[in-house]
Structure formats: structure tokens, C-alpha cells
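for the writeup, i need someone to sanity check this before i put it in the appendix. the sequnce is what the collaborator sent (i think, or maybe the updated version? ugh). structure was predicted straight from it, no edits. if anything looks off just tell me and ill rerun, i have time this weekend
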Amino acid sequence: MTSDNHGIIEAGRAIRPYLADWFAPQDAAAFDQGIAALLTTANPADAGTQAGQLRALLEGHPHTGRFLRDVLADAPHYRPPDQQPRYQRTPRPSPLGDPGPVAADRYNCPRGDYTWYRPDLGSAIPTCPTHQVTLVRG
């Protein structure tokens, strides 16, 4: 699998929690189901085809296309834009030094089709919307 294909698949996993912010509920659910179908039914040996289909789906809308481009620009980490240091504001350095942004914990569906980043320690860890299983830190 090429790194670009890996990044596209990571973007597909990571974009799912953001869809409700960009689309009406019914449209977000349909888009999410389309992504989930591509991520769960694809043959792992055929990652190039899977990545191509995901790219076409994500590039079909301005918000999701921008998300994909931003995730691919974050190689090799492939994080959502709001988890990338360039989009995070840090306070001015204090006399004790500048610790910089702290990376959010990443949680994945054990079946590989959903990724969620925990925004703060008080946030409850959700279940995968596709499989209804607890996400695993990783």
C-alpha cells in the first residue's frame, strides 16, 4: 500500500465524527454509511481500489475534500486538521518553557473503519457507529 493510499484510508476513518458538523443529519448519515461500506467491505489486499473509491467520495464535496487534503498534508501522521499542530494555537511561551500542544488520544474501532480523537479527558469514549463496539486506544 502506498503512503498516499494509507493516508486516504486514514482520512476516511477519521472524517466520520465530523460529518454531522457539515451536513444535515440525514445527509451526514448517508455519507457516513457510504464511507463505512467502503471501509468494511473492501478486500485488504486491494487497498488501491479502496483508496481510489474513498478519494472520489471525499473529493465530491468541498468540506470533505478539504479535510482529505489536510489529512494527506500531515503525512506520515494523517491526523484530522484540528489535531495537527499547525491548526492548534499555543499560548505564549512562559518562563518555564513552551510545552506546545499535547496530542489527543486516538481511539479506533477494532474492525478498522472508525477513528476518534479524544478532545479532553472528560469526554466519554464513544462506540463505533457501524459495529456498536467500544473503541480501543491506539
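The mean pLDDT is 89. Residues 30 and 85 are 31 Å apart (CA to CA).
thx in advance!!
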